[in-house]
Amino acid sequence: MIELLGILLVVQGGGGLLNRLLGARSPSWFVQLHVLPPSLHVAASVVMVLGGVVVLAGVRKRRR
């Protein structure tokens, strides 16, 4: 279940980051783009990606 959280964070963060970096005007389905002010979109997306990577790395390390 925790692995699903990591995947969700990576997908949401990465998609939101690409959405902003490519200049899309619509927030699409990326949560942080709906709930945060525009000045925090990129930073929040990066934090979400990094958080997801940490969660997934922790799950992988625990399985060994």
Write a brief structural summary.
With 64 residues, this protein is an all-alpha fold.
Detailed description of the structure:
This protein is mainly α. It contains 3 helices and no strands. Helix 1 (2-21) packs antiparallel against helix 3.
Mean pLDDT: 94
Number of strands: 0
Number of continuous helical runs: 3
Helix content: over 70%
Query: Radius of gyration, Cα only, in angstroms?
Result: 13 Å
Detail the poorly predicted runs. none
The SSE string, one letter per element, is HHH
> What is the percentage of strand-forming residues?
under 5%
Distance between the termini: 17 Å
Shape: elongated
Report the sheet with the most strands, covering strand number, pairing sense and barrel closure.
Answer: none
Tell me the structural class: mainly alpha
What topology does this entry show?
Elements: H1 2-21, H2 31-35, H3 41-63
What characteristics describe this protein?
64 residues; 0% strand; mainly alpha; single chain
